[in-house]
Structure formats: structure tokens, C-alpha cells
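Hi team,

Filling in the usual template for the complex we talked about on Friday. All components are listed, including any nucleic acid strands or ligand strings, so the model treats them as one assembly.

SUBMITTER: L.P.
PURPOSE: interface mapping
COMPONENTS: four
RESIDUES: 1212
SEQUENCES:
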Amino acid sequence: MKLQGIIPPVVTPLTDDHEFDEVSYERLLNRMIDAGVDGLFVLGSSSEVVFSTDERRREIIEAAIRITDGRVPVMVGVIDTATPRVIEHIRVAEELGADAVVATAPFYAIIGQKEVERHFRLLHAATDLPIFAYDLPQCVHIKLQGDMLVRLGSEGVLAGVKDSSGDDVGFRFLSIDNEQLGHPLQLFTGHEVVVDGAYLSGADGAVPGLANVNPDLYVQQWKAFKEGDWDRVRELQTQEARLMRITSVTEGETGFAAGVGAFKTALNLMGIFDSPQMPEPILPLDAKNREAIAKVLKEEGML
Amino acid sequence: MKLQGIIPPVVTPLTDDHEFDEVSYERLLNRMIDAGVDGLFVLGSSSEVVFSTDERRREIIEAAIRITDGRVPVMVGVIDTATPRVIEHIRVAEELGADAVVATAPFYAIIGQKEVERHFRLLHAATDLPIFAYDLPQCVHIKLQGDMLVRLGSEGVLAGVKDSSGDDVGFRFLSIDNEQLGHPLQLFTGHEVVVDGAYLSGADGAVPGLANVNPDLYVQQWKAFKEGDWDRVRELQTQEARLMRITSVTEGETGFAAGVGAFKTALNLMGIFDSPQMPEPILPLDAKNREAIAKVLKEEGML
Amino acid sequence: MKLQGIIPPVVTPLTDDHEFDEVSYERLLNRMIDAGVDGLFVLGSSSEVVFSTDERRREIIEAAIRITDGRVPVMVGVIDTATPRVIEHIRVAEELGADAVVATAPFYAIIGQKEVERHFRLLHAATDLPIFAYDLPQCVHIKLQGDMLVRLGSEGVLAGVKDSSGDDVGFRFLSIDNEQLGHPLQLFTGHEVVVDGAYLSGADGAVPGLANVNPDLYVQQWKAFKEGDWDRVRELQTQEARLMRITSVTEGETGFAAGVGAFKTALNLMGIFDSPQMPEPILPLDAKNREAIAKVLKEEGML
Amino acid sequence: MKLQGIIPPVVTPLTDDHEFDEVSYERLLNRMIDAGVDGLFVLGSSSEVVFSTDERRREIIEAAIRITDGRVPVMVGVIDTATPRVIEHIRVAEELGADAVVATAPFYAIIGQKEVERHFRLLHAATDLPIFAYDLPQCVHIKLQGDMLVRLGSEGVLAGVKDSSGDDVGFRFLSIDNEQLGHPLQLFTGHEVVVDGAYLSGADGAVPGLANVNPDLYVQQWKAFKEGDWDRVRELQTQEARLMRITSVTEGETGFAAGVGAFKTALNLMGIFDSPQMPEPILPLDAKNREAIAKVLKEEGML
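RESULT (copied from the run log):
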């Protein structure tokens, strides 16, 4: 199984009192699967994985596996601070039926590249599941080196990379190196508004958070790319970028609150989520920001 | 209870096969308590908290409480990525008998100061234990603002601050503000080689990792400070700084591997730890680095 | 005059004793103009502008204007720490016949966005020459905000942007905003290995340092883009990326020494520069690095 | 001549129309010399050196030399982007009678430690004046390594260091290393509110911008330190820290505008400067911020 295409990182709905809202979750997943996505990525950064207790993580995986019911592969994030904790999450993912796991480098403790490499090797020694390396230096505070990634790919340690590093130059070199070695790694971009550039660079697909709000655009864009219709690819990219403004029209919010807050608010406005509730210590976006998001959704024909 | 004085962040010994080594731990704790430390801080950064599974964390707390047996207060780190997970660690700390807990801001997800403030308020609402804020932007990637800290102190949300931010200017302002409000916060520095400057700035004590290797120096320095003997304070500071070179004489290592690696290697060389084992994915320091550390220990009369 | 297409930032040859080597310069410029570049950018970062005295800067502009002789427009960098110094450089550029000037935000002193905006307004008030904003946060340590750039563009303060910020997401939004306002800004990318992605994003051209070494690739790629031949655009991008490895095969060098050092060494190996000399305090690349670069050049058919 | 004690970095007064205000400058310098400072540092960061044209720099040095008239030594900043430009400034400093020069590492272009070291060696080869290295990574974006500094000190390349790096741990190690080699470097701290900690660490003096506003506090503190009266040293430090709040009570300003803006506004309020004018593109602080500063000055008995 080589994963490719559109694999959205699934946002996690909460009830107003911070319980997992499985009904909304089912609506969200079915809508994306019906739109034709090629897989789902649960417990990624946008899924509020680091805000979720181990019990909550388990709830989410179980629901995703049950709802998906084999229609598309399910990748599961096993994100935690260091190897021993990550391996525990891998055990749960294995038990519950994940198709692949996604792991970052260790974080919080300051480490070097040799420890990052050993980390991935230890994860591989611990599981038969395909492992995707998640490159997200804004959160993890270390960049995964391209030469390390292709080495681990060609040795069978890694199955692929989800690149959200914001480093398009690095991604290009990674892609060229990967090609020279026979394409051992499946490469995905996590940047919603430059998916087209990533396809030019050789990406095997995208993991766009915005596909929670509009999966169609990304599915159509992937098809256009496969057909070599670059005008259509660009046109859809512009539509995606315009819709992505839901994450920047808000005021007084930064980072996770602005980004995932906008996704949840949009999904709530569109009737897919019953509540825009955010995980503690984040509050849902206020009325004014909600209005600003509604305005963008209307302009883009989503409301 | 107002904590003050020398409260070392306790390094965690492992066996060669990565089990918790309670025998070495007992030697370490008794040596520090016998030297006259005023408390112990377990499950801090130097205690490899983020490398430890929940089960390992529990083992460590239980051992610390059992060994300490009320001789000195035990502060317990409840370090995790966000509020819901931190509250789970607080529950364990309460259950096992901690005297206080130490929490960082949330990390990994990018958040703002208002979320950090809400985080500490939610922790306080969840427990009666005194809460110490841990300021460590090198790992947490956000600086705790001084005005927020004193506000939370004067409202009874926080009992104190462990400052390892490397920002001596900020610490001075924090100390002056705290004084003006009647000293609601107990302030501790985590920087081994400028403890004297922190005392001048108004610190109520220190949390020096190096005190694992030589607790006497810090206990004597605290006494000299209380007696107003600044020449002695400085003299001891110079000795501490010279000993601290065990963390910089190594080659090819950075961050946690260099720092805690040096502490563990020194404790092993001195016969206090049976093994210099490090948590995965970190390897113990190699023979050459071990020699370099032994040389410093000899020069400083520790071997 | 709307600048567009390929406008290489011209590398500055030095003699072994650190004089400006006008003979090599003439070879370099003529070769690029003959290849069909659309303009030249002198005194940019790659032109060692910040290593050049005011007298040296003048020598370089004079030579560029003389050699170019109106065949293509000449953009002149007026890079310095703050407004009054930049305006002095603008005066010289005007006097010597520049077609446009390129300015960064102020640097060294820490300032905010409002001061950056005022800076560009003051520059515009001081000259009739078209002003291009140079976005290079790796050197300038402040990112030019997209909304400020398009505002200054629509008011006629700025004629365009040279984006070397490494932020492809920001560039996409800048391009879309610029389009909505009627395209007041001409947008150029400075990133050699993702020029294709920038074209997809709406760039009006590229300012690739690597075009000093091989201008043909970039000129052909621009033509392919104008003809909508994306397969050819990508194919040329891969060739460019492979050639760009001259900047990463070196060992023991970073930043300017690795990048411009590689360009100068390649130009020297190819017989265009008489010497690979670097400006003080940088030394030319050593024999081993020179060999590594020669190897890449041979593989890419440049030697 | 071994420089030591209090050497304020002199703020530069401007007239409302951005000319150098030599009358105010004379008032400022005489007031500091009368207060007993041990030297003056002109054309440092706080002197708006990077906002000043070469002609303005010359005006300032000439005025400083004329006014000082040998009463105290004058250190002159020769701050520019790279070696050839810095050497030109050194020539002017020599010509006009400076007693020492102060140089940073090169900035803007990204370089490594070996180039920094070569830079200082080239400066030393170019002049007989004592050279002080200025460590200011917030502006220069590279940290001067302690081992390099003491090596250059023991070889006679550097006469001393002005440390404004905000790294008190590094300063302590620098001081201890310097002592072991026989104290070749004179070490100064630039951090106004932790001068006492720097004295404990072994500093030979301070270069506090705040001494422009109140030179007495720093002169008295230096005397108290020389007499071993640490209680007095601390007491004065608290007064200095309280006065330093003029730089943080402002709203909507950052960096240079907040810091030097506050100094100029205070000096204007106190009648020492005729105008609070700031160099372009910075505006003087607004009325509300001016009031906030006046309030602090009154509380501290300066108005």
C-alpha cells in the first residue's frame, strides 16, 4: 500500500462541555470520504492531539476506525515528547487497527539530529506499521534533515514524510533526492495554499487542514494534477487560498486558536459541527471573529 | 509553608536496560538530604520527565516520597503538552503525596499569553496543591510574562516561579514587582552558575541541577548568602562554575545529552549511580567524554 | 516600464588582492545579457553589497551601467542600516543612471512594522526612481508584511518586491492580494530551486543568484512558463536544483561563504572569473571544496 | 590605560529638523563627566550609530572629543556591516582622536565564528587603537564565543568586551576564563538592571544607557562595589531598575523606539535635551507615552 492523494488531518469536534462529539465527527468523516479523499489522518496537530488525554486519543481512534470502516486508510498520529511515550501510543494504534502511524521528532528536551535518527529507528524496531515522519519545526523546534529522511526511507525505516515545515526549498531537494533513490518515501505537503507548488516539486499528495472545510477543492485539484491540467490546478489553488482566509481574518488570536479555531467555527457555521468548542486552555472564537469567518464562507459560496 | 533555599531538580538513574534504578536513587536523595538541601524537585526537565512514561513517572514519585519520608518537601513536575494532560499528572501527584507541583505553559501547539494565563488558572481550580510556574523558554518556546506571574501570585493562583529562562533582566523586574506586592511568589533560579546574581536580585532560593553532583557547594552558598557574606558567596559561585564545566567539556553532544549526560556520568564516576544510562533515544556519553568529565571532577576534588 | 522575467543578482568579482575585477565583471555581464536575461540587479546581497565600501559600490554601479549600455535595465541595491544612509545610496544610484533601486527594511536596530512602512515612504519621497522592497528576513531579521506591501504598491510608493523570505505561503497571499488590487507590484522570487512554484503563485519573474553560473536555464524556463509548457518548466527546475548543489556540497562553510563562495568558485572554474577571491573577512573556498564544486559542474555539463 | 568603571553609551540629541544638536550634547556630556563617570562611549547602538550618515558620525565624534577635552577617555563605535567598512570608520576615529574603538561582528550577511575571529584580527592589524568587542546578538544576530574572546584577548588583539548579550551564564564563564589567563580583557556589562550581578561575576565596569538619565546612581554603585558594600550596591540597583521603567511604561513601541525614545524623552523632560527628536524612520514618543515617562521620573525624584 502506497498512500497518495488527499489525506486530510481531521479536526476533532467537542461538545460544549468538552466531551468528544462523535455525532459531529461522523458527519465530518462521511462528508470527506464522500468527497473522495484518499485517506484520513487522525490525531495530528490540527486534531488537537497534544490537548487530548490518552483516553480521549483512544476514543478518537476508535471512532475513526468504526466510521471509516475500511473505506479509506486511517493514519494515526502518535505524537509525544520522546521515544518511550511514542511507542506506547503506537501500541494503541496497532491494537485499534491503524493503517499507518505519524510521528514527529522528540520535543521539549533539546536534542540533535543523531538522536532524531535513532528515535525513528527505535520506532521502526517497535512496530510493523508504516511510519510517516512529521516535519513541523514550528511546533517541534527541530527541522528533519532531508538526507536523514531519504536514508531512513531507503532502509525501510520510514514509509513517507508529512512536510509542514514551510521550507519549500528543502522540500524540493528532498523530492529530488528521493527520486534518485527510487522513490522510497511517499511525500505529502501540509501547506494548504501552496499544494500546487508541492505537486510541481514532486509531492505524492497533500494533508490539508482546510479540506475539513472544503474537501472537494482538494480532491478536484489532485485529479487536475494527475491529468496534467495546470491551469485548473492553479485556479483551484486560488480558491483554496481565498477560503484559507478564514484563518487570518480573526483578530486577537494566534497559532492554534486562530487556525483550528477558524476550522471549527466554519464547520459549526456550516452545520457539520454542533459546537465550535476548543480544547482547554483555548476558548472558542468570539462573536466578532465568528462573523468575519461567516463573511469569508459566504464570499466563497460555502454558506 | 513557604519553600526556600536549595531544592535540586533530581536526576533519575536508569539501569543499563532502561529500568528505573531505585537503589542508586536512594543513594542520590539521601546524599542531598544529608548535605542539607531544603527540598527536592522530581520530574523536572533534568529528571527526564518528558522521556518517562506515565508508569515511570509514578515509580519515580513513589520512590521519592518513600525515600524522603517527610525529611524535606517534595515538589513534583507535572509537565505535559496541555491543560487536560497536566491535570491528570496533578491527580497522580496529589494521590502520591506531593507537597507542591511544578507546571510549564502548554507547549507544541502555538498559543498566546492569554491561554497561558488561563492554563494556570485552570490548574489552580483543579487542585489545592501549591503550583509553581516553570519558566523555560528554551524547551517550552514561550516566555512567561512577569506581570502575569505577579498577578497570578497576588491572586493566590501561583505559589512561586522556577526561572530557568536565562533572562536575568526579566528576573530582576519580576523580583521587584513581587516585592512591591508583598512577596506573594517564592522565586527560584535554575541557573547553576549565576545563583549569586539571582540572590542579589531577590531570589528565595535555587534549583540547581549541578547540586546532584555537589550539593554541599549550594547549601553552603545559601548559608553564606543568609549571613550576608558576599565574598564567600562569590567564592563558592566560582567553584560551582568550574565544576559546571563537566557539561561543556564534552564533544559532539548538545542540549539534554550534554547536560544531563554529564550529570549522570559524573554520578556514575563518583559511585552514586550504578550506570550512566540515558533515556531513549539518547545514548550515554562515550569513553572520551567520560574521561573529560573525570578530569574536571579530579581538578575540583570530586574524584 | 514594468520589469519582469529573469533579473540575476550579479556576483562581484575581486582580484586576489581584493580590488574590483572589471574585466571579469564584463565577461559575466555580457554572458548573461547574451543569454537573454531581462535585467540585472547589482549591489544585492549576493553582490557582497554589505562588504563593499561606498567607493567600491560606486565602482560597481559605474561598471554595470557602462557595460550594460542600455541593453537591459539595471536595478541597484541601496542596502544599509537605516533611512538616512539608504537615501545617500539612492542619490548615488540616481547620479550614475540606475533604472530602479532595491531597498530592505532598516536592520541592526530593532524596529516595528510601522517604522518599516515609514522608511519606504521616506525613500519614495526622496526619489523618482522605482523602488523595489527586498524581503530577506534571514539577513534583515524582520519580515515585510504582505498587507503593507500591497498598500504601498497601490499608493505608488513601491514598484515591486523581491521576495527571498523563504515563505511560499506568504508569497501566495501577497500575489493574490496584489492581483485583486490590479497588480500594482511586480513580484520576483529570489529562490533558485522553487522558481516554478513562484510562477504558479503569480510571480512576474525571478532574481536567481544561480543564473550567474547558468543564465540559460532560467531564461529558457521563463520562456517555457510564458508558453504554458509546465513539463518543460519542471524539467528545467530539476536541472537548476541539481546545479544548485554547488552551494551545499562544500564542508565547513555556512551562509555567505558557502553560497556566494560556490558561485565565485564555479565562475572561476569556468573561466569567467579570474579569481574566486571573497571579500574580507571571508576566505575563498579551499581546494577540497573547490573539487567538490568542480564535480557538480562536470555532472551538470558546465565544465 | 586599562578602562574601567562607568562608561555611558552617549545618546545623541537631534533638533526638531533632524540636525545634530551640539548644545544639548554639551549639556549631557558635562553632566555625566561632572557626576564622575570614567569614560564615554559614543556611536554605540544607543547613540543611533546605524541611523547616522558618515558625516553625522564625524560630527558626533568631533563634538565628543572637543567637549570632553581629555577629562575622560572617549571610546568610539565603528559599527558597520563588514570589515572593509569598519576599517574606514576606524580611520576616522584615529584621525579625530578616539582613545579606543568598539566593534561588533559583521552583520547582515550570515557568517560563522571563524569569520568573526578573522574580522577582529583584521581590525587589529589595521590600527594601534585598543579594540573592544561588542557582543549584542539581538542586533548582530551572532553570539561572540567566550573562548574566542579570551584567545583574542591573550594575544593582544582585543582590549576588552562590552557584553550586552543578555547571557549572564556566558558572561560568568567568560569572566572566569579571563581571570585564569591573567585578565587580558576588560569586561563591561551593558545591562542596566543587573549591573550588580555583573560585578559579582567579575565585570570591570558598566556601559549603562540609563546613565544618560541618571549618571549618579551608577557612579555611586561602582564606588559601593569597590568598597565591598553589597547592601548599597543592591539598593542602588533597585533604584536603577525602578528608573529603567521609563523604557517599559510606553505603549505601542518596541525596540529602539521604546528604549532610546524613552531616554531622549526623559532628557527632554529634564531640560537636558531641547528636543526628544528621533532619527528617521522613528518618530518621537507621543504625548501619552511622554506622560507615562514623566510619571516615572517624578516617582524617582528626577523631575
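MY TAKE: DSSP finds twelve helices and eight strands in chain A. Chain A has a mean pLDDT of 97.

Thanks, L.
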